[in-house]
Amino acid sequence: MLKRIFKYKLSYIIAAFVFIAAVLAIALWPRGSKQSDFPLLASPQQVSTNIMSLDAQMKYSQLIVDATVKEGLTVEENRPSQEEIDVLGDKVGAYSTGRVRMSVNEVIYGEPVNEFNLYLTPAMQDCAPDYKPGDRFVFILQPYQDGYYTITAVNSIFYVAYDEKVYLASLDEPYMRISGNELQDFKDELRELKAQVPTIAE
Q1: Is residue 170 classed as helix, strand or coil in its secondary structure?
Q2: Which of 66, 100, 176, 177 would be 105's cystine partner, CB 3.0–4.6 Å?
Q3: Element of type H or E holding 195
Q4: Does the residue 13 lie in any domain?
């Protein structure tokens, strides 16, 4: 009798362990990435960081890269020069600019580069990702000065997920089809678009 009770209890214990293991396996099983894993950027307040079509971005971009954040955002306070004061008057005050150090995984278009500084104006800082070390992006860029580049538009930023899928930083209707695309397919599309559109040097 005791043996039978013990067997029943043992069966229940084993069944309970199997159930718990199954629940944990389902909860911890790797799932695919999705758009909602990534924050959407705030709407830009200035025309210089406005929404642009991919074709328009191709005209102005001189560097397109798959890059990873090496050093997070560094903000620098800047005081206006005497020339700026002469032109804009006494109302112009101090302003902040940002810099993010990026390590390049692959140059999709442009001259070979291993690292670069992403330059952020005050307007760009208002509609930018957190740029934490290790975060990966595809950027469509314009040169700013030696070693520095700026985004062509607020929708020139694309998140790259751990499973190498691409997601939008700004959900604009013409770009919705890109969300969730394979990274390599997106790179191939950018190369094809760039080959069709001549660059306008600024």
Answers
A1: coil
A2: 66
A3: helix 183-196
A4: no
Considering the domain boundaries, does residue 80 fall inside one? yes
Cα–Cα distances in Å, from 169 out to 3, 41, 147?
Answer: 63, 6, 24
Cα of 177 vs its chain's centroid, Å? 17
The CATH number that applies at residue 93 is 2.40.50.120
Please count the structural domains in the chain. Answer: 1
Higher local confidence (pLDDT), 113 or 53: 113
What residues make up the domain containing 118?
35-196
Phi and psi torsions of 122, nearest 5°: -55, -40
Q: Tell how far CA 120 is from the center of its chain.
A: 14
Q: How far is CA 156 from CA 21, 80, 147, 171, in A?
A: 44, 28, 19, 12
What would the pLDDT profile of 32-88 be if each residue is shown by its tens digit?
A: 898 888 888 776 554 445 567 777 788 888 999 999 999 987 877 766 666 666 666
Both structure tokens of 139:
């950027």
Which token pair is 20? 């718990």
